[in-house]
Write a structure and sequence with these properties.
The complex is a heterodimer. By secondary structure, chain A is of the alpha+beta class. Chain A is 50% helix and 18% strand. Chain A has helices spanning 11-28, 30-61, 63-67, 90-96, 202-208, 229-237, 248-262, 265-294, 296-304, 309-342, 353-380; strands spanning 72-76, 87-88, 101-115, 121-129, 141-143, 154-158, 173-176, 179-187, 197-201, 215-216, 218-223, 243-247. In chain A, α2 (30-61) packs antiparallel against α8 and α10 (309-342) runs antiparallel to α11 (353-380). Chain A is elongated and about 105 Å long. Chain B is of the alpha/beta class. Chain B has six helices and ten strands; from the N terminus they run βββαββαβαααβαβββ. Chain B has helices at residues 46-53, 76-86, 102-112, 119-126, 142-154, 172-189; strands at 2-13, 20-31, 35-39, 61-66, 69-70, 87-90, 160-164, 192-196, 208-213, 216-221. The longest helix of chain B is centred in the last third of the chain and has 18 residues, at 172-189. Classes of the chains: A alpha+beta, B alpha/beta. The interface between A and B is large, with 34 and 47 residues.
Chain lengths: 388, 222
């Protein structure tokens, strides 16, 4: 009695068999595995460092917006960044009488120059805030007391800039915008995108920055509990004169947009990331293609015994997935390790977890696309190769 | 019962004046439990005939039937599943998956035929290779490789076993051993075994011998 035709495994079971075979084939050639993983790790590291740096810069550029404690900002309508222009003092009074507003304070933001003992001048970002100094900073105070700002010509510097300004200590005296100024204390970690922050009382800052009494740099608004920022902002827009009104979340987004669209930063970092991905695409693609070429007889045998293109593609796609998973994991570990070593208030490296996950998913897609050339090569292999 | 029936099969490669007729109206059959050897000089069309029977090539004319299925009428896409369910191959060069051990190569075929992989060791025992089950295939001798290849071919017990020059690179002892195993599969398990060979040392093991020359059957020796 002749045996009956055999059954054929189907569906998921067959795909799993192909995936296991793909993994076994992948680990068989250790040198190729190492080389290909390098091709995945490289773009993961490059793209993540570029993106970490970019996100770090975005965070730095919105440091004040995110930490000032304000719910709404009233800023010059023509200004694209803080520090450009001023608004009418009347807007401060309008804000204070708008329903839903608990507190409104004037603030100033502008560049100043610190003269060092050796005569050299270094830039500082002067931030003028009004008593009781709970809107607009200072925050992260590590030395001194915020009340020292009440003293004339007294500033709080950031500790990251102590050496820059010639070895500052509490009580040190420097000339700021040609006015003799004493150091009242230090904040920590407030290194924005640009010159470090120095906090001053609003009146001190107004004099240092030569702003007239009837103008303010911008107005910080804190809402009453339960008030809706969008509704209060809409009410303010109808009342203020020649000023823009932004809830904080919108203002932070506006800052991101300006950095990304009005400076070359966004294009530069995205180009670096894209370059890394292209390199990864080419390396993985060539490795997988050469893997097929080197194993023509193996793949031919699999075709001869009855495997179809779906089965063979599953082998390569499982390899692509494994390359992406292993390469992304190694790359992200490396990036995180390096970032931990390098991170400081001055070196902003920020990578949201969602973006790290996005990198891994992107690498998965890159590796899958890379395998297409190899899959195309598989298509041309004849099962008859086994008889040659 | 006829497991394989080839009727008036032609296979032509190329066209016009360049056309090469590898097979010219070949008739061939193999019964269940029979070992048929196809012999003939190099280039005579032996392997082309084996490729038609194994659904790797389709005839230009004529009919190829495996059991009840006329495979020559099936589209290309339907041939791979037929190969998997109907045919076990023993190639001249075993063409194992190098990354898998001997037993794993056999187990792969079992899995593809929806059978538990643990049967691989029993199959290796059938060909006297259970002691080398975990060996890397690259470390096997020629004779051992062909025996593992036979175990892989019969994994899941397909009705037809096709072997292409299985003794070509083996010494007389191993060549005879391999052919004796193939014969045993035919006699004890009922497989239809078709062996292409021009090895005179093993021709005596065939139930029937079909000689091909220049694409035509010239002699059938019972």
């Amino acid at each position: 009695m002749i045996p009956k035709p055999t059954r054929r495994a189907g569906g998921l079971k067959r795909l799993l068999t192909m995936a296991r075979l793909g993994v076994a084939m992948l680990f068989h050639s250790k040198l190729r595995l190492a080389g290909t993983l390098l091709g995945v790790v490289f773009p993961v590291v490059l793209a993540n460092f570029a993106l970490e740096t970019m996100f770090g810069l975005l965070q730095k550029s919105t440091l004040l917006q995110r930490n000032a404690g304000a719910d709404i900002w009233i800023v010059p309508s023509s200004a694209e960044i803080l520090g450009q222009g001023t608004v009418d003092y009347q807007n401060l009074l309008i804000a204070r009488t708008t329903p839903g507003v608990a507190q409104a304070q004037p603030a100033l933001f502008g560049p100043a120059a610190v003269t060092l003992p050796n005569g050299r001048r270094e830039g500082v970002t002067l931030l003028g805030v009004a008593e009781p100094y709970d809107l607009g900073g200072p925050w992260n105070l590590v030395a001194g007391d915020v009340r020292v700002l009440r003293h004339p010509d007294t500033l709080l510097f950031d500790s990251s800039a102590r050496e820059t300004f010639g070895g500052l200590n509490v009580g040190s005296v420097r000339e700021v915008n040609d006015r003799r100024t004493s150091v009242g204390g230090f904040t920590w970690g407030l290194a924005p995108f640009g010159a470090s922050f120095a906090f001053a009382d609003y009146e001190t800052a107004r004099e240092y920055l030569h702003v007239p009494r009837d103008r303010v740099g911008f107005v910080l608004v804190r809402l009453e509990p339960g008030a809706d920022p969008q509704e209060v902002a809409a009410a303010l827009r109808g009342r203020v004169d020649d000023a823009a009104v932004h809830p904080t979340a919108d203002f932070v987004q506006l800052g991101y947009r300006q950095i990304l669209t009005k400076t070359p930063i966004g294009v530069t970092f995205v180009t670096i990331s894209a370059f890394g991905l292209i390199v990864g695409l080419v390396i993985v693609g060539l490795a997988m293609f050469s893997s097929v070429v080197d194993n023509l007889k193996e793949f031919g045998t699999l075709k001869a015994v009855g495997l179809g293109m779906v089965d063979l593609s599953a082998i390569l796609l499982s390899q692509a997935a494994l390359y992406a998973a292993m390469g992304s994991a190694l790359g992200l570990l490396l990036v995180n390790g390096l970032a931990r070593l390098m991170r400081s208030p001055n070196v902003g490296l920020e990578l949201p977890p969602a973006l790290a996950l996005g990198t891994a998913v992107t690498m998965g897609l890159v590796c899958a696309v890379s395998s297409l050339l190899a899959i195309q090569r598989l298509r041309t292999i004849e099962a008859g190769i086994v008889f040659r | 019962m006829r497991a394989v029936n080839v009727a008036g099969a032609w296979k032509t490669f190329g066209s016009g004046p360049e056309a090469v007729h590898a097979l010219r109206g070949v008739d061939f059959h193999a019964e269940a439990g029979e070992m048929v050897m196809i012999s003939g000089p190099s280039g005579s069309g032996k392997t082309t005939l084996l490729s038609l029977i194994g659904c790797i090539l389709r005839p230009s004319r004529g009919e190829v039937r495996l059991l009840d299925t006329v495979v020559s009428e099936l589209p290309e896409s339907a041939l791979a599943p037929i190969r998997l369910s109907h045919v076990g191959f023993v190639f001249h060069s075993p063409n194992f998956i190098a990354s898998l051990a001997a037993a794993e190569n056999v187990a792969l075929m079992l899995q593809l035929r929806d059978l538990p992989e643990r049967g691989a060791r029993e199959l290796l025992e059938l060909v006297g290779m259970s002691h080398r089950a975990d060996a890397e295939v690259s470390g096997l001798s020629g004779g051992e490789r062909q025996r593992v290849a036979i175990a892989r071919a019969v994994a899941g017990s397909p009705p037809i076993i096709l072997a292409d020059e299985p003794t070509a690179s083996l010494d007389a002892k191993n060549g005879t051993l391999v052919c004796e195993i193939l014969r045993r599969l035919a006699k004890e398990l009922g497989h239809a075994v078709v062996v292409v060979t021009h090895d005179p040392r093993v021709l005596h093991l065939a139930d029937r011998r079909v000689n091909i020359e220049d694409g035509s059957v010239t002699e059938v020796i019972q």
